[in-house]
Amino acid sequence: MGVLKHYKELLPITPATPDVNLEEGCTPLIYLPRVSKRLGIKLYGKFEGCNPSGSFKDRGMVLAVAKALEEGKRAVICASTGNTSASAAAYAASQGIPCFVLLPAGKVALGKLAQALMYGAKVIAVKGNFDRALELAREGAEKTGCAMVNSVNPYRLIGQRSGAWEICDVLGKAPDWHAIPVGNAGNISAYWAGYNEYKKLGKINSLPRMMGFQAEGAAPLVFNKPCPNPETIATAIRIGNPVSAHLARAAVNESNGEFNSVTDEEILAAQKILAAEGGVFAEPASCAPLAGLIKLKGLNKLPEGITVTMILTGNGLKDPDTAMSQVGKPIEINDTLEDLMKVLESK
Ligand code: AN7
Prior knowledge:
Shape: globular
Order of helices and strands: HEHEHEHEHEHEHHEHEHHEHHEHH
Bound molecules: ligand AN7
Number of helices: 15
Radius of gyration: 20 Å
Helix content: 40-55%
Strand content: 5-15%
Number of strands: 10
Structural class: alpha/beta
């Protein structure tokens, strides 16, 4: 039914809020038996890749675009490592308003670029990194009156709280740990706010430890200082100066959580494990939490038997290039049964 309808009572919806809806939300919370066994925990992946534009961004974008229209704005603008732009472009298309997206040139996964272009956004490749593109987008929004739909827009984070509500609605409780990738640091902040709201409403009686994971080459929250030249294969979280750093720090401190970093190699290994032992194909950034859990297990810092939800923030199909560089090629055969049998009977 879409996030705005599903959680109408918990969102700032007024009679004047337009009914924007791409049937986002209600994504599957998938129990992962084989990966759980490997880690000695109960592990669930919330597969945000099932959202209409293939990432968690749709939860907040639907509200941000609805409120922009309600406030009389007639165009949206954002900077993005890819998923925000795909989501903004999709909702703008559904409402028939222009969308401008600023991307770090050459550093956006192919599927995300294809999406923004197909949805009809004006796509601007900035010769600079995401952090610089975000500064430019903010200035452009101020000068033109376009609605800024990055997570500096408060409605983005309010809509993203719905992920936490869904987890609690399905589990009937909060998880022990909430594991999540951290880039611009909005999502971890939104989830923490969402869990707290549910606790206040008496829908859950405990709160999870918020465990944030960053790529080692782009880990300003782990190393406690901005990273001027962020670099990682997980381009979605190639961010050096997160706008919601203060909120994310508060979430981790208040929940007795942690920030940890993982290497690109660990991320790629985790992506393969999630696919080959979990049956779920998530993009590299989304696999930072699993990489982190594996790392913590190796350090004897993962308690036995706990319930962990990890947020699989984006669909693996968005970044086919990275995936293909990690796996072998198909086995090519002549169109004969003899050739086929050779393959089927080989060890
Ligand atoms: C798959 O699209 O910042 O910590 O511009 O695409 O809330 O930023 C994407 C971020 C994790 C990090 N996983 O979330 C953008 C953008 C995926 C992402 C994150 C992003 P935040």
